[in-house]
Amino acid sequence: MVNLKVPCRPIIAYRPIRPSDITVLEQIHGDLFPIRYESDFFHNVVNGRGIVSWGAVDHSRPNAQSDELIGFVTARIVSARDSEIEDVISFDSSKTDKTLVYILTLGVVDSYRNLGIASSLIHEVMKYASNITTCRAVYLHVISYNIAAIHLYQKMSFQCLRRLYNFYYINGQHYDSYLFVYYVNGGRSPFSLIELVTLLASYAKNGFKLMAAKLWKNEERKISKWSKCKERPVCYFLRSRTKGSSRLRVLGVSLSN
């Protein structure tokens, strides 16, 4: 178990994980997680083969220890269409280039916890994802009994999408998992029922306004025509008779009121 003594004033820095970190990386994973990772996983991490990673170090530690890992986060880019959260990401399915960043592992040695290191490591992933124009979200799984991690993700504005029953199988026992997501670059979940009803109501309201405007415009045209008709001169004729003839005589001109 890695149990380091924390200096009074640690100087925490963050950097990419390198091949020289492989031994410490394996040791910390073994100490922190009940799941055993294959050797290929660690080689892929330290060599950047399909996995991106950041390590936390304490420059206040003496000698070579100042560059030794005390925390880490590993992640990879996945296609949005091929991910398990495709149904909860709103994007144009005709565009196949949309991606997500999936956090694989995150850990900090016990003696360096509660110093904000895990939050800073997650921020590195969030910044990385935000700089990928095709990326729409960062997501991860967390085992149901890891209350500290659940609170951390909630504090960092991750949304819990669903509970996955019997997701993990560890030492002969099943455990549930929570699926968390953080949207970036305009990514969002599809419309909820309430949002859909609100959107339809908005469309209906706008449609009603448009229809009312057209009806009012037509009515104005009718009134305008009637006004013009009323303003036309009306002539009054009186038939008068004279010997041997009958003729019309104009009495006058009037404007109808």
TrEMBL record:
Keyword Acyltransferase: yes
Transit peptide in keyword set: no
Sorted UniProt keywords: Acyltransferase, Chromatin regulator, Chromosome partition, Transferase
Xref: CDD domains: NAT_SF
EC annotation from Swiss-Prot or TrEMBL: 2.3.1.259, 2.3.1.48
A Pfam family per the record: Acetyltransf_1
Top-rank taxon, per record: Eukaryota
Top EC class for this record: transferase
GO biological process: chromatin organization; chromosome segregation
Family: Belongs to the acetyltransferase family. NAA60 subfamily.
Name of the protein described by the UniProt record: N-alpha-acetyltransferase 60
